[in-house]
Every structure is written in C-alpha cells, then in structure tokens.
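From the shared-data thread, chain only:
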Amino acid sequence: MTDDAAESATLTPEEKARRAGSFGGIAAQYERYRPGPPLAAVDWILPEGAQTVVDLGAGTGALTRLLVGRVPHVVAVEPDDRMRALLSEAVPAARAVAGRGESMPLPDASADAVIASTSWHWMDLVPTLTEVARVLVPGGDLGVLWSGPDPQAAFMAQAQDAMRAFGQSGVTGETGETDEGAAVLAHAINDPVAGHQVLEIPPGVPFDQPESTEFKWDQALTADDLLGLLGTFSWVIVMDDDARRGLYETARTLLRQDGVVGDVTIDVGYSATVWKARRHS
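Structure, as tokens:
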C-alpha cells in the first residue's frame, strides 16, 4: 500500500495541505484501523527518567495511549478538531491541545521528548525542527517513527503477484468497471516508501545527527480490516466516490481469490522505522 509519507514527498504545497487535512473526516475509521507503533519502538525512543513527553501530530492517540502510564505527563498536540476530540475522549489522562509541528502552544524547555508517529512527513522540516528544539529541554530527544504494512514482507509480494495476474485477466467487476481499480491498487502496492521514512537534520538546527532502527511484527487481518486500513490513507480519502468504490472492489476481489473472506485472516507483516535525534545541550 502506498504510504502517506511516500505520497507527501511528491505533492504540491496545496495538495499536501489538502491531504493533511483529510483525516478528520474519517477519524473513527482511522482510530479503528490504523496501527500504532510497537512498545519496543517507544521504549527505544524514550529517554531515561522522562517526565513530560509530547505526542506531535497525535491523531486519535495510538501513540498517546502507549505513553500514558510510562511517563508522568503526556501532551498530545493535534491540529484537527475532530481527531483531537476523539483522542480526548479515548485517552483522558493525556492533555490534548490544538497545535502543529511548526507552532506548539507549549512553554520553552518544557518537554524531555517530542515524538511524531506517522505524522512527520506532513510538517515543514526546518520550522518544525526549530519549534521542537524550543520545546525540548537541552539534551532532550526528538523521536520520529513510521509504522505500517512492511513493503518487503510476504503479503506484499503475494499482492504484487496477484495484481499482475489480475491485470492480465481483463476481469470486469460487479459494478461493470474494468481493471482501472487494479491499476490504482497496483500503484498502491508497488510504490516504494522506505526512502521517504527518514529523519533529516539539515545544517543550522540544534540537533545531533539521528540514529535509526527498525522493528518488525506480524498481524492477522481480515479482508474488512485490510480495506479499512486502505481507507485511512490520504490518497484514498480524497478520491471521488466512484474511484474509491472501484479500488475497494478490486481489493476485495483479489482477497476473495486468495480465500480471504469473512472471518478468515491473512498474516500481514508490519514494520516500524524509528529515528531519534538529541537536542544540543
């Protein structure tokens, strides 16, 4: 599946803003289907003895939940009112505030760590790094991570094979559409994302060069789970209704051909690419 990080790298500023603002319209679906990061990734980022941690671009709170109980004070910064309202209801122990990477309503040197989970690519790099540096205590850590289906895992290889076979078959779906949906899904499956999941530290910002690691795991998903996940990516959210219907139909047809129907699950490999950089003391 095309990751939003990959897509955002090629968008005009106007389209990027449109995509970034699209998630609130599906906040409940995002909450239901988007995976949070593994605990091991959070532990790798968190500095020892952290007292206050900011979840930046918190969405509906997948990371926030993991921080609550691990550090005394958790602040979730989220620009979309609908996403933030859901987060506040689901994770009342965290303090949810309106803000964005480039402008956080937080005091100087007030956080031991700022972590952005699958949200960093929507922010303007240098202004956000400058603002994070303001909010962090000297020696505090910036953590950036992306988690989602692993493009190198077996499921993705199977999906690519299925797309090739489907595209050659000329199958027409129940709605009368040809394999136009297959072409869109093929783009979704084949577009590489790893090169876009990078924390860059340019000259002039007060951070050390980052270190990185990766975590992998499997998750059993039904066809409904997979389609629900697909519908949380911005390029799908902003599709017109007919195109989105065709995409879902194609995906469900491919899964049905592989026997993934009803409560039947398929193991999907996930990965989390994790970065951290220390603010200069």
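Confidence is low (pLDDT under 50) at residues 168-195.
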